[in-house]
Amino acid sequence: METIKRVGVFDSGLGGLTVLNRCMDLLPEEAFLYYADTDNVPYGNKTREQITQYVDNAVDYMLANSCKAIVIACNSATSAGVDYLRDKYKDEIIVSIEPAVKPAILEHAKGGKVLVLATRVTIEGKKLTDLIKLYDKENVVVKRAMPELAMLAENGVFDTDVIVPHLKGELDGLDLKEFDVVVLGCTHFPFFYDSFKILMPWADVIDGSGGVARQVGRELERLGIREKELVVAERNRVVYVDSGRDIDSIKRARYIRSLNERLDMLFKQR
Ligand code: DGL
Questions:
Q1: Cα-to-centroid distance, 175 and ligand 1 (Å)
Q2: Which position among 62, 74, 77, 259 bears the catalytic label?
């Protein structure tokens, strides 16, 4: 790989493209390495120890391949392993996503409830419990695991006729009218923004990607390593790897492109 310094963005699969999309918008002068851990997706049903090991391998790879900052664009990885990573890679910039509970409560809830959706690992993790404890003074947060949504995104199932009934089934037993805000606490979930808005058109549907992108910018600025201008051709702005290997098929490259186009289309609606 060439020696230009990139921002490494990591996820279990293609969910982190939702974060990459925001980073590319907010940091137009930066180039990126996107690492999808295709061999091990989904993380949602793995143990915390397994996930920590996978993320450690990925961070190791990204640093060895000239990344100047690491973005953990995977809430499950944050939940399971970010403390370990921060301790191990003390001198590196590591910015990690977490469910957007704080803005949901402080900015979006208008007296109603907040629905936090994520993988099982994130929902059951201490990090989310602590985060909710910190901001949820009125007990408005309800959290629920959505175990199948990440793989539906990996497999390109976005049809609202399929997804809306799936969401309804997973959220069975909740009175959806009570919720002002839906927090998408898994980076795969914004791919289904349109379905969430069909199901709950009155609710704000938010995620943590904007906060992460701004934080990356601040960190690069603070260390004086933010680029002044983009030094690679636009088509080489992002290098994609699957568990450390170059993307090896045209079909895969096309699929990634179609997901990026989907995000551009969806995010225009927000
Ligand atoms: N995209 C990931 C997250 O933010 C994980 C999905 C999965 O691999 O289960 O939690």
A1: 26
A2: 74
